[in-house]
User: What shape does this take?
Amino acid sequence: MSLGVLFPGQGSQSIGMLKDLKSSYSIVSEVFEEASDLLSFDLWKITKNGPESKINDTEFTQPIMLCAAFSIWKIWNEEGGDSPIYIAGHSFGEYTALCASGSLKFKDAIKLVKKRAECMKNAPKGKMSAIIGIDFHKLKQLHEENTLSEVSIANINAPGQIVISGTEEGVSQLSELALSNKAKRVIPIPVSVAAHSSLMIDQSKVFKDFVDKVKISDLTIPVVNNVDVKCEINEALIKDALVRQLYSPVRWVETIEYMEQEGVDFMLELGPGKVLTSFNKRIDNSIKSISVSDSNSLESALETLGNL
Assistant: This one.
């Protein structure tokens, strides 16, 4: 058995997550306290009590989700869980992946995602929508043929599940074209930032100046990046991929396919929710994939992988 570990991005958060793990593992408190000290606000209080408006605000969501997923990674290792041969993270989950690989210090990751969130909020306001039930190549063709410069394909999550991002007008135009070409439905995503779109290009330059000051060391486990579907080992190339990720699509389908081609035959999602596990089933129903988000799923995963 060859394991691949996946870390979720924004959208998997919920009030009260990790409550049972925190009562059993001091690691959770330690991780959240370290991040809270760095940011000067109580991340666990928001995680435990909300409100929804705060836990879903990208300024708080990104560091909270980094803490949550990294805590579960540390618990997995403390419990003697199998080591992966590849790691990947969806969107800002790539920062958790770099922490898990040993190349990015947790304190630096917290500072990076804080700055990333600031840059996203300072970019021009926009809109994101999920297009359900249309082929990626067909959507790409519609986008290119109609020269829609104010909208980008942001996330290729799974067959028939693609997220678009850009100005309100641009997203509406491409959504209408998709629906008229047999897309099943369009689901607006409740955010005001146009992540992974050209609206982020100017702010990516601000982010680059910040990223350049952070040290990224050698990876102990290869991390498949979102923008190129590559495992970079050069510090400058890793940083460049993080910067370009702000305005480039998350190529998630290709990421999972790459890991499979490289020998991964079991996928483990570590973090709140089961979003990536559900994507995996749509990408390749034969993929063995489970998620760990609480004590019960942790116990089940340790037992399942221990028996393989």
Summary: Strands lie at 3-7, 86-89, 127-132, 151-158, 161-166, 185-189, 223-224, 266-270, 288-292.
